[in-house]
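The instructor's notes for this session suggest beginning with a concrete chain rather than abstract definitions. Hand out the sequence below and ask the class to guess, before any prediction is shown, which regions might be ordered.
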Amino acid sequence: MNAETSVEPTLRLAEPVATGSGRWVLDPEVLTRNHIVGFGAMSDHSRPFFMIRSGLLHHATAMHQRVFAVTSAQAGNGKTHIATNLAATLSRIHPTILLELDLHQPSLGQRLGLPTDTPGIDDYLSGEAAWEDTAIQIEGFDLTVHRVRLARVNAGSLLASAALADILKRLRSNSNGPICIVDTPPALIGDDLVLIARGIDGVLLVAEEARSRKRDIIDVANALNPTPIVGTILNNSIALQSRSNSYGYYYQDDREGHSTGAPLANL
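After discussion, reveal the predicted structure:
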C-alpha cells in the first residue's frame, strides 16, 4: 500500500458535534466566510440557488434522473461554490447527496468546516473504507456529504475504478432516492470528468462571462458526449454588474435538445 492511498490509524467515523444524533453541526461563521448561503434564509444572495433548485427538481422528476455533475471548463469559474449552495438548497426540501470527486484539488471539507480525520470518498475509491463510512450527515438538513479527505496523485485510476461505477449505478437506479450533486474537476484539465461522466445522468456547466471561451464550451460538450449538458450557469455576468453577485441560469430540455432561451434566475 503506497503513501498516497494509505489511511492513517487515527481515522474515525464522524462523531456528533453539539448533538447526540451523530450528525455534523455546521459552523455559521465558516459558512459565511466561504460564502455558503444555501443553508440560510432566502436572500438576494441565495435566491438564484432556490431558482435553479426548482428547475433541476422539475428536470429530475420529468426525466427520472438522479445524479448530476457540476463542472466548468477552467478552474476558478465557481463550480464548487455553485455545487455546494445548490446541494444546500435542495436538501431543504429533498434528500440530497453532495459528492466531491475533484481528487486533485478538494476543497469541500474546508468550505463546510467538516472533520478532517474521518474516511473520505477517496478512501472508498481506494478500497480503504466502505461507502457508508465516508458519509457525513448534516444536522438540520436532509443532506449527506461525501468529501475527499486527501488530494490524490492517482486520481485517474481511482475515478476509473469499479467502486465509483458501482456507487453511481446504485444512486442512478433509485428513482425515489436522493438527488446527487457531484462536484467534479474542471472539464478541460485532464480526463477526470470524462471518467465521471459515463456514470451520471447529466451535467450542469458553469461558465464565467468574459473568461470562458466559446471554443472551450464546445470542447466540453464534445468531450462529454453522449452525457448531456442539462443546464448552463452564467457566473459573474457583466450585463448584471450593477449587483454585488451576478448569476444567470439557463436550462436545456433534453427531450427536445434545445435551450429554453429564458433565464431561470438572475442576481
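Then share the key points. The two ends are 49 Å apart (CA to CA). Confidence is low (pLDDT under 50) at residues 1-16, 238-267.
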